[in-house]
Amino acid sequence: MDDLITLIKKYQPVNEQETIDQQVMIDFISKNTDVLVRDNQVAHLTSSAIVVNEAMDKVLFAYHNIYDSWGWVGGHNDGDDCVLCVAIKEAKEETGVKHIRPYSEDIFMIDTIHVSNHYKKGAFVPDHLHMNITFLLIADESDELVIKPDENQGVKWFKLAEIFEVISEERMKPIYQKALDKLVTLKKYSKL
């Protein structure tokens, strides 16, 4: 867990929300030995990915069954403390892409996300928090996309300008806006 805390401490927050969430994550991980598994019903770590094409002008989203919305890919760490490995694994599983790599091994975003109670595979899941670590991944846009029926109903590339037309989860819009702002900045500096 020390490597994970070091990785989180290394991240440079972009706003007050991330500064607070970063400290909350570090404190929570330091005090709880079960943050990598779903047994902790208050909060647990999750790893997500903003998956873009090489040109960084499109993002790959999945239409999630639980949230009834298009959005990023990712999932529970289920005991794995390699948050980047989990983000890559989840991106491949949820989209079918095979050629995918990290833009960087550094964290792209940090967010604490409230998850409302719901049923998954017939079992009740109570309200809890996802202490989410997001990575920026680059995927081959020509890879075949595959739906994962137990998780999503669709997988599709969207132009960056289109993403707010397809997201129906209001609570996620500020997170996606933050991601979009960071992508625009990365694209701008990569052309210099």
Describe the overall structure.
It is a single chain. By secondary structure, the chain is of the alpha+beta class. It is built from 5 helices and 10 strands. The longest helix is centred in the last third of the chain and has 18 residues.
List the helices and strands and how they pair.
Elements: H1 2-10, H2 16-31, E1 43-52, E2 58-64, E3 69-71, E4 73-76, H3 83-95, E5 100-102, E6 109-115, E7 118-120, E8 123-125, E9 128-139, E10 152-159, H4 163-166, H5 173-190
Parallel strand pairs: 1-9
Antiparallel strand pairs: 1-2, 1-4, 2-3, 2-10, 5-9, 6-9, 7-8
Sum this structure up briefly.
With 192 residues, the chain is of the alpha+beta class. It has helices at residues 2-10, 16-31, 83-95, 163-166, 173-190; strands spanning 43-52, 58-64, 69-71, 73-76, 100-102, 109-115, 118-120, 123-125, 128-139, 152-159. The chain has one domain (2-190): Nucleoside Triphosphate Pyrophosphohydrolase (Alpha-Beta Complex).
Rg value: 16 Å
User: Helix count?
Assistant: 5
Secondary-structure element pattern, one letter each? HHEEEEHEEEEEEHH
* Fold-level CATH name: Nucleoside Triphosphate Pyrophosphohydrolase
- Give the low-confidence spans: none
Features:
Nucleoside Triphosphate Pyrophosphohydrolase, globular, single chain, 5 helices, 192 residues, alpha+beta, two-stranded antiparallel ribbon, eight-stranded mixed sheet
